[in-house]
Amino acid sequence: MRSRTTEGSMGERAAQKKMRMKELSRAAGVPKGTILYYIKEGLVPRPVKTHANMAYYGEAHLRAIRLVKELQGKRFLPLSVIKQILKGSDLSVDELRTLVEMDGKLFRNLKGNPAVKPVTISKLADRTGASLQEIRDLERLRIVCPVQKGTRKLYDEDDIRMVECWVKLRKAGFAKELGFDADILTIHRDLLRILVEEEAKTLLSRVAGRVESLNLDLAKMVEDATGILNTMMGIIHKRLIVETVRKYTEAFRQQIQAKQGP
DNA sequence: ACAGCATAACCGTAACCGAC
DNA sequence: GTCGGTTACGGTTATGCTGT
């Protein structure tokens, strides 16, 4: 009888998202001692304490515990690193959790079955016609990102395509003699980094915490959107170039007309 | 040695119950 | 209503265990 009334009050609290330690422990699948340890370590927020030995926990505590377990289990991160991630990020627990769930799923087909096998720097230079110095410059700027495999550094399909593009720019007339070097790409990298950060925030602010309930395949959404947006950005880029040239041309014409007088 | 728990002991409280 | 008893449960602390 007693237990039934206790369960009843538990149910009411659960509905209000207010849990006691036992409910939180059961919901998270983590022992009480572990939860207290996480709180002590600052990985989980402190509960609302009603008395010296009584506290209530909410959904935020549950989500925090699940995120910690996920980062441990899937990413093999130590608690000290998880703590830094939680404190160093301006993302919410839900948003971090959404990112973690997506990690490793994006563009997996391409990475798992590359059409082109990764190559060494000398083969990359041979294949593309780029100099070793140019490839190293692109690497310094993190525009190509080789992977260290034992003693060898290997460049994957994207790196190869990136260097091929760089060589095409050279052939199009952007010559070293004119002052064009890899650093001219820095602005693209930096602006794209800002763009991607903003895109991530936009996406996360809308879907974080709702992926399961809405049954979303977030990795596929991002993959599809990347292709579509790349096409759209190409068109916008082209239009902006035309508009910019027109704007300066117009300004130049007005200057000429002003000098010639009415 | 250290991180990351797990367990036990102890003390205290919440929630319930029956008696008055 | 409130008082005291009972039981389940929570918090703290110390200690021990396990894997790296």
N-to-C span: 100 Å
> What is the level 1 CATH name of the largest domain?
Mainly Alpha
Q: What value does the Rg take, in angstroms?
A: 27 Å
Helix content: 55-70%
CATH topology of the largest domain: Multidrug-efflux Transporter Regulator, Chain: A, Domain 2
Could you explain how this protein is built, in words?
With 262 residues, this protein is mostly helical. It folds into three domains: 2-88, Multidrug-efflux Transporter Regulator, Chain: A, Domain 2; 91-215, Orthogonal Bundle (Multidrug-efflux Transporter Regulator, Chain: A, Domain 2); 217-262. It has helices at residues 2-15, 21-28, 32-41, 59-75, 79-88, 93-102, 108-112, 121-128, 132-140, 157-171, 186-207, 218-260, and strands spanning 48-51, 54-56, 147-149, 152-154. The strands form two sheets. Strands 1-2 form a two-stranded antiparallel sheet. Strand 3 and strand 4 form a beta hairpin. The longest helix is centred in the C-terminal third of the chain and has 43 residues, at 218-260. It is extended. It starts with a helix and ends with a helix. Residues 1-16 have low confidence and may be disordered. The chain binds a DNA duplex (20 and 20 nucleotides) through residues 1-3, 5-6, 9, 20-22, 31-34, 36-37, 41, 49, 51-55, 78-80.
